[in-house]
Amino acid sequence: MPKTTYVNVELKTNTGDITVNSDLSFNSAKANTDTGDISWKANVNESIEFGTDTGDIRVSDITAKSITASGDTGSMTIKNTNLSGKFKFDNDTGYIVVDNCQIGSIEGSTTTGGMSFKRTTLTGDLNAHCSTGDVKFISFDAANIDVGTSTGDITGSLKTGKIFTANTSTGKVSVPTSSGSGYAKLTYAPTKAFNFSTFASRFRQR
pTM for the complete prediction? Predict the structure, then answer.
């Protein structure tokens, strides 16, 4: 395809990868594959929808309004991306990574697989939960945070203070003494005998 801006694009394969480079741009886009990876580097004015049965989804260095991603088996990575709206994900088995992004809000869930939010700021809320896996934060911030894991730990650092609450089925609850305009609600079950005072020292404001 020649270098230009296209109104809409819909890409689909049964077996094979989908790769869209940065020399293209679209008004809206959809990309789906049954077996294969999706690699996306093209700017989109409105929404992007991704879907895979077996394969990874990798998005980097783009601007768009929103991204919706669904997968059965495979990781999802959003890096160096600016979204004015929402990143929404639904993944059965695979890790979620959001790195160095500016996003309106994030909402999603995984069944088996952790989540990592690094060097990213949300103007709105984070609402993310996984059944099995850890949730990690590195220099992250959002207006409000609601995260949970049934089997796993939640650790990391935030850019600004939050009013913390934590719920667990195993162990004591001890969260950082902090203040702020937003809240951080944490629900999880540690993978081993775990004193939540240790968690409090690891989950800190930076």
Answer: 0.85
